[in-house]
Amino acid sequence: MKLHTLLKVLPFVKFPNDNPEIQDIVQDNRKVTPGSLFICIQGLTVDGHRFAEDAANKGAVAILSEKPLDVDIPVIIVPDTKRAMAILADSFYGQPTKKMKLIGITGTNGKTTTSHLVEQILRDAGEKTGLIGTMYMKIGNNTLETKNTTPDSLTLQSTFKQMLDEGVSSAVMEVSSHALDQGRVFGCDYDVAVFTNITQDHLDYHHTMEAYLRAKSLLFAQLGNAYNHEHPKFAVLNIDDSGSKQIQKETAAHIVTYGIDNQTAQFRAKDIDMNAKGTVFTLVSPAGERRVHLQLIGKFSIYNILAAISVGYVLNIPLDSILQSVENVKGVPGRFELVQAGQQFPIVVDYAHTPDSLENVLKTVQQFAKKRIFVVVGCGGDRDRTKRPIMAQIACQYGTDPIFTSDNPRSEDPEAIIKEMEAGVKGLQYVTFVDRKEAIKYAIQHASEGDVVLIAGKGHETYQIIGNKINDFDDRKVASEAVQECKK
Ligand SMILES: CC(=O)N[C@H]1[C@@H](OP(=O)(O)OP(=O)(O)OC[C@H]2O[C@@H](n3ccc(=O)[nH]c3=O)[C@H](O)[C@@H]2O)O[C@H](CO)[C@@H](O)[C@@H]1O[C@H](C)C(=O)N[C@@H](C)C(=O)N[C@H](CCC(=O)O)C(=O)O
Ligand SMILES: Nc1ncnc2c1ncn2[C@@H]1O[C@H](COP(=O)(O)OP(=O)(O)OP(=O)(O)O)[C@@H](O)[C@H]1O
Ligand SMILES: N[C@H](CCC[C@H](N)C(=O)O)C(=O)O
Ligand SMILES: [Mg+2]
């Protein structure tokens, strides 16, 4: 694409005299190849403008910048390069999200789970699907690795283009608050946006809950208009969560509500019956009442199911097909996943790494544990420090045997992180092991029939990040091995 053609989507920019062919758009000087447009991003760690000269030396033919630069290739100046990058990426890759159904899911907890449920509903309805989220990106059945839950706008739009080339008709993605704040999704044309909930997390980044909710609400602000009857847009909101009120004010889309406690929810679960094998509830929906039998457990799972059902419904998928899909779902890897290694008690591996998710999952475990509840839990390094004492306190409140350990300490001292957890539980009973393997072993050695072992925080993760090193570590494997060792 010619530079001038590409720049047409950015109003008021000054077109340079040169009009080179743009082969690629990159934001990392290490990825520049001849013919690239290099975009300078002021990051949180470094200022990308400082790599402009190197990009030019490597063959970049133009630079997008927020300030004048001393290089001998054209420099186009815009007020906000991150935003411009998202808009250019959308245009460069042929506006892929305009040609497919796109569902975005945001909220503190439940994004990965809900996106998998929605993907399943769409597949069962005959769509070829794409999925972007914490665990991977998927095009049909092929998975691609991903670094972020929501990738940068260039990766995002090129992935959508690939999806389109491979026949994807509907894509579902998790939209993190970081991505919204950094404009990674500005170039996405969503049809449906979902809000799961908001509770404490990421205060290291957003600083206040108000700023965190504001970031989440950006997804709904960019969603578009309810009165475009050809392409109506839908905001699917958890009406039991007070954050929905704020979000509702920020969007011009149709509002669709789901919930359990609030009787006005358009998609509501009532008469809930839960046991260790699954959950049964009555779905109240615009299409009438239906009894639903799930293989998932926990009140939080019902919220995810309701969100997914609402999405399917607004996309005109027949309710019968939607319900058949969700009833068949066995679970999502690392979310309340049971480790079966021949032991006499349940071992649950769960991705709860926030106070609210830990509390929810422990309340669910409490319903089934006859005796003790062992909770292995740590808190991530280089992440919200204020959740550490709270998570420790929740582990002590709901567990009988809390075990504090490490969960991706990253650049921080693992012992110091545990100390910050301990500050929340002075005078209470718990044990600590810096080595997560030892913590898991301890729980499994001490548990017996009637007890439950919950290993929280890492879920599907297959690594433990200590310093800059990414070490192999999978809670599910470590737990299985510990069970085998105990049998010896
Ligand atoms: C805090 C945060 O969000 N950081 C993201 C941010 O990095 P950054 O601002 O530090 O970027 P930077 O390193 O300063 O670089 C600035 C610019 O210089 C360029 N650069 C940099 C170095 C160099 O040698 N050459 C070069 O050209 C970079 O490509 C970039 O364009 O922009 C990067 C590119 O888009 C992201 O990969 C990176 O995510 C890091 C890995 C991260 O850990 N992010 C987490 C906090 C995050 O975003 N998490 C959410 C999920 C949260 C949840 O679901 O709970 C997510 O969506 O993943
Ligand atoms: N709707 C929900 N409400 C509260 N907690 C939930 C909900 N759904 C899942 N959880 C809990 O949160 C954990 C993470 O769930 P999930 O991976 O679906 O969330 P996520 O929003 O994608 O998280 P992340 O932001 O880290 O990617 C689960 O393991 C479970 O303990
Ligand atoms: N998306 C979350 C994942 C946290 C998972 C937990 N295991 C940790 O490392 O803190 C984050 O990056 O904050
Ligand atoms: Mg996720």
UniProtKB/TrEMBL annotation:
Cofactor(s) the record lists: Mg(2+)
Sequence positions that bind ATP: 107-113
Domain Mur ligase C-terminal: 334-459
Biological pathway: Cell wall biogenesis; peptidoglycan biosynthesis
Pfam families recorded: Mur_ligase, Mur_ligase_C, Mur_ligase_M
GO molecular function terms noted in the UniProt entry: ATP binding; magnesium ion binding; tetrahydrofolylpolyglutamate synthase activity; UDP-N-acetylmuramoylalanyl-D-glutamate-2,6-diaminopimelate ligase activity
Mur ligase central domain boundaries: 105-311
Compartments reported by the entry: Cytoplasm
Modification after translation (UniProt): Carboxylation is probably crucial for Mg(2+) binding and, consequently, for the gamma-phosphate positioning of ATP.
Gene Ontology annotations of biological process type: cell division; cell wall organization; peptidoglycan biosynthetic process; regulation of cell shape
Residues given in the record as UDP-N-acetyl-alpha-D-muramoyl-L-alanyl-D-glutamate binding sites: 148-150, 176, 182, 184
Any GO CC annotation of this UniProt entry: cytoplasm
Keyword Oxidoreductase: no
Keywords: ATP-binding, Cell cycle, Cell division, Cell shape, Cell wall biogenesis/degradation, Cytoplasm, Ligase, Magnesium, Nucleotide-binding, Peptidoglycan synthesis
Motif (Meso-diaminopimelate recognition motif): 407-410
Residues annotated to bind meso-2,6-diaminopimelate: 383, 407-410, 457, 461
Catalyzed reactions: UDP-N-acetyl-alpha-D-muramoyl-L-alanyl-D-glutamate + meso-2,6-diaminopimelate + ATP = UDP-N-acetyl-alpha-D-muramoyl-L-alanyl-gamma-D-glutamyl-meso-2,6-diaminopimelate + ADP + phosphate + H(+)
EC number of this enzyme: 6.3.2.13
Residues modified to N6-carboxylysine: 216
Family annotation (PANTHER family): MUR LIGASE FAMILY MEMBER (PTHR23135), UDP-N-ACETYLMURAMOYL-L-ALANYL-D-GLUTAMATE--2,6-DIAMINOPIMELATE LIGASE MURE HOMOLOG, CHLOROPLASTIC (PTHR23135:SF4)
Protein's name according to its UniProt entry: UDP-N-acetylmuramoyl-L-alanyl-D-glutamate--2,6-diaminopimelate ligase
Gene name for this UniProt entry: murE
